[in-house]
């Protein structure tokens, strides 16, 4: 049993070193020593359940406590920097390292080694894939932007302008969230019609064409539009 114990611990240690080296080379908060300690510690806790003869249920219970403990440890490496979250990937790596340690402690060497390979592939190969995706042009990204089109026209032609806006959107085609009208201060007899649209930035040229057509209406004195920052579309 002593030889088996050392074999399990050595497996957890080796897997932890392999994962930790990759994190250390990238200068992450949780590097070589932290990852190795998490993997080895998880192995020791599970091995304790084996040595005390608690059976499968006891080992499973200890593994659950290990996962909870590593969750608190992972929370410590997640930081907020100027509104952005940093360290989530490192925390996930800690979590996976604990899983590798638990598998090693339970004597499942093949799955432990396979888990190590998956973690390394995720942090290396998929890292480059993520960079390639992030570098794609905005036109290819799944983003939406809120636009506000404002037209000032004669009060008598309000209905005509609202109809023209609706017809232009249907022919583009575009869709709007709202279409409102209000009096223009200091300009009696003038109405401000505002259309709020949500669309992909690549369709901005359609909005520009629509604004150009509306500006040719006799009753229109001004046409303008503004855009807010792009946001990911909800899934």
From TrEMBL:
MgtC-like C-terminal domain: residues covered: 147-225
Record bears the keyword Transit peptide: no
Protein topology in the membrane: Multi-pass membrane protein
Signal sequence residues: none
Localization: Cell inner membrane; Cell membrane
Membrane-spanning ranges: 6-22, 34-52, 58-78, 109-126
InterPro entries xrefs: MgtC-like_C (IPR048640), MgtC/SapB/SrpB/YhiD_fam (IPR003416), MgtC_SapB_SrpB_YhiD_N (IPR049177)
Top-level taxon: Bacteria
Renumbered residue ranges of the record's region Disordered: 210-235
UniProt keyword list: Cell inner membrane, Cell membrane, Membrane, Transmembrane, Transmembrane helix
Pfam families to which the protein is assigned, alphabetical: MgtC, MgtC_SapB_C
Chief place where the protein resides: membrane
Transmembrane found in the keyword field: yes
Any single GO CC term annotated in Swiss-Prot or TrEMBL for this entry: plasma membrane
Sequence ranges assigned to domain MgtC/SapB/SrpB/YhiD N-terminal in this UniProt record: 9-131
Free-text function comment from the UniProt entry: Virulence factor required for growth in low Mg(2+) medium and for intramacrophage survival. May be involved in regulating membrane potential by activating Na(+)/K(+)-ATPase.
Family according to the record: Belongs to the MgtC/SapB family.
Protein name: Protein MgtC
